[in-house]
Amino acid sequence: MHGEIISVGTEILLGDIVDTNSAYLAKELSKYGIDVYYISSVGDNKERIKQSVINASQRSQIIFLTGGLGPTEDDLTKEALCEALEIPLYEDQNEVKRIKNYFKNREIEMSTNNLKQALIPEGAIILENTLGTASGLILEKDQRYYILLPGPPKEMKILFTNQVIPWLNNKLRTKGTFLHSHTLKFLGISESKLDWELQDIFKAQTNPTISILAKDGEIHCRLSAKVSSQEEFNEIITPVKEEILKRLREYYFASDDTRIEEIVGSLLNKKRWTLATAESCTGGLIAQRITDIPGSSRYFLGGIIAYDNAVKKNILGVPEEILEKYGAVSQETALAMAQGVRKLLQADISLAITGIAGPQGGTADKPVGLVYIALVGENINKWERFIFSGTRNDIRWRSANWALYLLKRSLEQFESRSF
After folding, report:
1. Which of 80, 223, 249, 405 has its CA 20 to 30 A from that of 241?
2. Is-contact 72 115, C-beta < 8 A?
3. For the chain, which ranges sit under pLDDT 50?
């Protein structure tokens, strides 16, 4: 089945917001064998929205429209769709009641234009919005399906997950082939190097196919196949996956949506070790990512953001002579920061990072992107040096990635023990 996504909103065309809805929907729809051939954006203009719907109807079987369902004069998606399909709108009394209750329950006076959102295309299925006032819709006309979703990503995603997916399963997922994907994630290897190592596999690929993507300092290798079941997919990709990992296992750290901080947390839990962090250039990013994982309080004691040298010296106990002789960005300072925070918080293992995130502050000897990462624990005293490229945020994120990767590799080297 061919699919199409139309994002409605002048703010997208002006660059005021980024259209994340289309990326999300395209990825999710591929799981249901819906090949998205076209993605477009159109402003808040009824005639142009109408023409976009007409164009989509001529080439796609299922059309998603996001945005333009609100109460204002420039929210015109439903009106344009109805004109394109020559069907009327009616005022749904259940929707009127729901919208009025939405404002009443929040003790907010409702302006009458909100009732515009109760206008529904005749024959449409209403997807009730529990987060906002604009409900979604599913409409079938001339063997085409039109699915209208709110523009705010949180509202769009919850409607898609809770109501559109069950509808897709019930109405569209018949016997046939569907696109399944499995992603292998790598660190410590460049995109070009990974591509080079897999050249023969690329040349021989049919089903599954392989694609490589550099993302947030990681390299993702996606295996995709058109199959009739998850079991068939697993059978097809297993030999290819095993061959890839045979060649590149030292760089592999996770699959699909698993994050490296989840793996670190799992390893710390398994070993019953506690962790403390000391961060300079990353400004607490490592601690944030670790504590993003539910249950991290079982193994993460806390962290110190030692941005100024006075904090490194007075809180973490970094000797003044180290700072004077080697500087704040050095292996000696990184190790001293790790030792200091481990002692201060009584942790089993500690991770420290110091560097120059830029865009200013670099020198010939210590350029922007220079980062030192240190790891200290019982029988552990190691450090690594990197020079990262990119923007300030790129350098900070890649630094945090590598710190977590160093921690992961080290944890895998030690036997479990109690503390």
Report:
1. 405
2. no
3. 175, 416-419
Residue 352 and residue 341 in contact, taking contact as beta carbons nearer than 8 Å: yes
Phi, psi angle pair for 61, to nearest 5°: -95, -25
Q: Are residues 271 and 396 in the same domain?
A: yes
Bridge pairing between strands 119-121 and 125-127: unpaired
- Cα–Cα distances (Å) from 283 to 189, 263, 397, in that order, read 26, 22, 11
CA distance linking residue 147 with residue 414, whole number of Å = 52
145 belongs to a structural domain: yes
The last residue of one of the domains, among 108, 140, 171, is 171
Residue 210 lies in domain: 178-255
Asked if residue 61 and residue 103 are part of one domain, the reply reads: yes
Peptide bond into 208 cis (omega under 30): yes
303-349 pLDDT tens trace: 999 999 999 999 999 999 999 999 999 999 999 999 999 999 999 99
Q: Residue 126 burial (CB < 10 Å; 0-12/13-18/19+)? A: middle
- Asked if 38 and 130 sit in the same domain, the reply is yes
User: Position 192: which residue type?
Assistant: S
How far apart, in whole angstroms, are the C-alpha atoms of residue 223 and residue 255?
11
